[in-house]
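Structure ticket #2291
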Amino acid sequence: MPTAVAANGSQLTRVEALTADEVYALPALVPLWPDAAAALGGMSRAGAYAAAASASFPVPCIKIGRSIRVRRSDLLHFLGLATEPEHSDTRLLAH
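Resolution: structure written out below.
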């Protein structure tokens, strides 16, 4: 995982940005770190949690117990992606 160095000298871990196909493959409720942060371009862990705590994360956050999740549909909307990928095969299988 790529790292950056903060002003105080500590290392910050950043995740690589996800492709559109990787965002579509995420579950309906996405963990804030690392998946949602990666979908939004690779935020640091500290940055993602600080944004969630101050309600400035770009999509609504859902707290479930000790974890923070975001809806994949909210990520897709924020990124300007269709709700479903255009290349998905939605035909019903014949029995």
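Closing remark: The CA atoms of residues 6 and 57 lie 20 Å apart.
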